[in-house]
Amino acid sequence: MITLARRRAALCALGALTTVLAGCSSGDTTGNGHPGRPAGPAATASPPAPPTLAPGPSGLTPVFSNGSRTQGRTVALTFDADMTVNQGTRAAAGERFDHPELVATLRRLKVPATFFMTGRWAEEYPAQAKAIGKDPLFEVANHSYSHHAFTSDCYGLPTVPPERMRADMERAYDAFRKAGVERPLPYFRFPGGCYDQRALRALAPGGVTAVQWDVVSGDAFATDADAVARQVVDGVRPGSVVVMHCTRSAAPTTERALRTIIPKLRERGFRFVRVSEQIRSTRVAVARGQGASDGRDFTGTP
Ligand SMILES: [Zn+2]
């Protein structure tokens, strides 16, 4: 299910520059051995690994919620492709958890985007998952397999026990591979945006960067596309990450809202980027000492 997450992710902890620099890994070396990546000699012939953030204190999974505010007017639209593990019967009965028109609109308007896909969604819509993964405009990241919660209190979602958290994430990567998604990114979005230190610890061996957002579109169950568009356009700042949904039954106005959001943000000088670019440019800003935080947060309080 889609949640009505309205909370803004915790503001980035502004570490001392030296700390931040020490925390910035090369991006080509983090996440080694991740199931989404090729391993061994073949890896040398593969494209460079996407940028990630270095782990936090005690190796906690880093959390990214927005990019640099000083590296130009970029904005990353992100789309959660939600499907909960027990929604198969609803899909079989005709409910649509996909949204091909939304994907077509992004393509028509040439808007790069990042899809946070559940493994269950990729199982239900393997051709679409593969096509999104193949399209150079887009990137596919992980939104768990089950869309169950990674904390004990998250909008009524059933909870994944801590010892199953990493397996749930890895099961989604398995589902992506089976669907033919070639290079899913080592980015993870917690269902409902709910996480705590226990969850950050549980996922740490997976080498992922958790990705939250700083702009809530409010598109879940929305009936007024103009209101969604307004909320996004008014909320976006340089470096923003916007959370939206690619699930027609539960976010039916999103595609219409996009047809307003995209030209309005372009009019205001914004350039659309994928999350990987947002993370990369943030790291560049930090390395140059341009007053940016690297966006990491370890408080466990989204
Ligand atoms: Zn979700």
TrEMBL record:
GO biological process: carbohydrate metabolic process
Sequence ranges assigned to domain NodB homology in this UniProt record: 73-273
Region feature (Disordered): 28-59
Signal peptide residues on this chain, from the entry's feature table: 1-22
InterPro entries assigned to the protein according to its UniProt record, in alphabetical order: Glyco_hydro/deAcase_b/a-brl, NODB_dom, Polysacc_deacetylase_ArnD
Alphabetic keyword roster: Signal
One Pfam entry name: Polysacc_deac_1
GO molecular function, one term: hydrolase activity, acting on carbon-nitrogen (but not peptide) bonds
Name of the protein: Polysaccharide deacetylase
